[in-house]
Every structure is written in C-alpha cells, then in structure tokens.
Amino acid sequence: MTKFYSVIDWSRPWLASILPAAETILAQEDWRVALNQAARAVGLINHRDLPLQFIPQEELPEGVAYESHISAAGKVPTRENLHDFFNALVWLSFPQIKRQLNALQAAQIETLGIGKSRGPARDAATIFDENAALLVLENSERGHRLLSCLREHQWQQAFIEHRDDFASVAQVWSFGHALMEKLVQPYKGITAHAWVVWVDPDFFAQSFAQQARQLDAQVSKQLQSHALTTADYTPLPVLGVPDWWAGQDETFYADEEVFRAKRVQASSQ
Description:
Blueprint: H1 19-26, H2 31-41, E1 53-55, H3 66-73, E2 75-77, H4 82-93, H5 95-112, H6 120-131, E3 132-138, H7 141-151, H8 155-161, H9 165-168, E4 170-174, H10 177-182, E5 191-199, H11 208-225, E6 234-237, H12 250-253
Parallel strand pairs: 1-2, 3-5
Antiparallel strand pairs: 3-4, 5-6
Helix pairs in contact: 1-2, 3-5, 4-5, 5-6, 5-11
Protein name: DUF3025 domain-containing protein
Pfam families: DUF3025
InterPro entries: DUF3025 (IPR021390)
C-alpha cells in the first residue's frame, strides 16, 4: 500500500536537517509506532520533563488547545498527513528547540487564552515553528557581509557574488514543518523566515550530527533568553539558496516577484 509520505523526495537539500530521523522511521512499516519507538529511544521529553508521545488527532480532548496538550500531557496530536509527519520528525531532530517553542506557546495560551489573535509573542513562536530556516553564519567579516546583503535584499550580491560563502561560512537548515510541506512540491516563491545563528569557524568542520546537536542547544538557549518577536526574522527565498535549485543564474535572481527589493520605510513626518 502506498504511504502518504511516499511523495517526498528525500534527496532534496532542504530535507537534510531531518533526514537521519526520517530514515529511522521509513525503515519500519507503521510510521506512528516507529515515531514513538524513536521518541523513547532518544528519551524525548517536553519542557515539564514528561515523556513525549505522538498520538492520533482524535485523542486530543475537546476544547483543549494543541500546544497546551503537548505541554500538560506530553502528547503530540499527529494526523496522517505531511504537515504533522514533518512536525514529528522535527521533534526528533531538534528536541530542545521544539521544547522551548512549546513552552513559549503554552505559556502564552495560559496567560492570554485562545482568541482570534494569538498575540505578538505567540505569533512569533508559531512562525518559527511553522516556517523558520536556521541561517547559520560564521561570526566573521564574511558572515556579517553575507547577512547584510540578505537583509538589504541584495540578492545578486548574496547569491552570485558571494556564492562561495555558502560552501564555507554559511549554511541553511530547514526547521519549520509547514515550510518542508510546501517544499514537497517546490515553487520559486517559497520564502522562509530565517533565524540567524552565529557560530565559530570550527563549526563547519564538524560532522552533521555534531552540528545538529550544537544548533539544537544554541538556538534553544537563544529562545530562552530572548523575547521573541516577528521582527527577528529575515526573509529568505529558499530556492535561491546556492545549489538548492537548478538554473540559478542572474536571470533567475532577477525575478522581482520572488527576489523583491527591500521596502522603503515611510517617513514619520
């Protein structure tokens, strides 16, 4: 029988961040059983130190918020679809970041309740959870120059003139599960909310597993010590990341529908 996740092309570079976790799950017949076995194997817990379990959506009690249930019970409602499947794989790949995001979201719900508006802090946490990419940069002149180009929407400079920097002082790691879901059927306009992570030069010489552990610990600490807002992100058209798509020439990056100029701030006068 064809699995719902059989449409995923695991060779895509934007899935590298969760590929080790995915390979463990894909090797077994029952994906939900496999997720829970993997969670137990790595000792996956929530921010209250409760063991984490992936449960069917129908087991979420009526009137209880999704994030609150994860926080209070350690149970993640998980539907049989790509969105929730990727979410579970991110839990297995970046457990500390996910724990901290859930703690932030649950605390906001407890304080403000569930209304039509999430509020700025919960909005920012939800954006991270759903659509973030980790923009890992060497804390050097080259790293800061590249970030400046991206923040100023100088796309030709960032992706063509400084293209080699992505092989030596910069990496992009997909994090948001909605971002991954969209990239199953990629289109040029997909844009991530990039979260900057500064690292020392020796980061890039580490193994993938060492890098993943460092990012998980480092970003979770950032989230603990920083009042998250929607202003924290840098827009990143992900198919513009060098070697993430074919035909990345000057014409590709000249498409102003995707690689947009930075908006000019209106005068306050």
